[in-house]
Amino acid sequence: MNQDQFMNGFYKFSIMFMRLAYVNLLWLLFMAAGLILFGFFPATIALYTVVRQWVRGNLDVPVFQTFFQTFKSEFVKGNAMGLVYFVIGFILYIDILYFSSPTTITSLIFYYFFWVVTFIYLLVGFFIFPVYVQYQQKWWNYFRTSIFIMLMNPVVVISYILLIGSTGIIMRALPGLIPLFSGSALAFALCMISQRGFRKMEQIQEEREQPNSRTKISTSVR
Description:
By secondary structure, the chain is mostly helical. It has helices at 3-33, 40-55, 63-73, 75-98, 105-134, 141-152, 154-173, 178-181, 184-208. The protein has nine helices and no strands.
């Protein structure tokens, strides 16, 4: 590798480094503007919208304009989806607390069952954002689509778990990176991995979109 190639690679890395840091700061700022509770889902959808463009090779997308417009346009729909997600999480939390001191085999089974459901619930929380920015659906269908992609792509699920775990370890070891890369770097990596799941899902849907097919998943790529 000659010096020009090295400098060109270093330049591209530096530009992406700054882009990820910038969009991560926007993510944190807009979350705060929505008082966290009402800002998390719209801001995260906006984050994934920008990152998806980068993954698709559109590196010249206007970051602030795209982020701000997405935040505004998806505010109500994103919060509706977020409200349902958090309500489900609260119900699971109550269920785990209720069975946390099992006295019978049945209650013990339920206790571990709800922990497994909670694990799936948390994974859906990560899958749902790449799915949201990839497809145009009713907000309640994103849950079903996310679960379907998870079931059809165990390699993608394992990759998600490894990435999320690795990111958590790195951020815990280097907390100074949290304001710069806590959301954007993970979103970029998850969007790249998700493309495999999307291709497989679209292939399955094409096979099922036959006149006699009974099972269809309504998806429209953005």
